[in-house]
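Re-run with default settings, no changes from the original entry. Doing this only to confirm the output is reproducible before filing.
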Amino acid sequence: MSSPQDTPVQAAGCVLWRRSPIDGELEVCLVHRPKYDDWSHPKGKLKQDEEARTGAVREVAEETGYTPRLGSPLPTHRYLAQGRPKEVRYWAAEAVSGGFTPNDEVDRILWLSPAAARHRLTQPRDRTLVDALLSALHLT
């Protein structure tokens, strides 16, 4: 019999992107979470009975201040977080409006080139999502 500890925590997020207002090049948004002192893609746990797409949009808006327009689904990541299995569904998402204000969860964001974003990400597994975004946007 499985216990609640065996049930994966459900989460969703996005690889948020935009065209640079300076040179039109692709930029990827990374968030800094002071609680973990890490750089990652915006994501978070789903609320009870929340659809993954809805949760991804909500989490991106809460963490970055930007309204995302969801595009292609990206690979789902499965890993252990604090000893529990976690499943995070991701989408490519264009930032269509908004602006960042620091909050309790995220104190900074960076808009970086894909290569710089790949280098800055704390978790190696998150780097594969940058490549998946480029593929989804037909830029590889």
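Helices lie at 52-64, 114-120, 124-136. The chain has one domain: 4-136.
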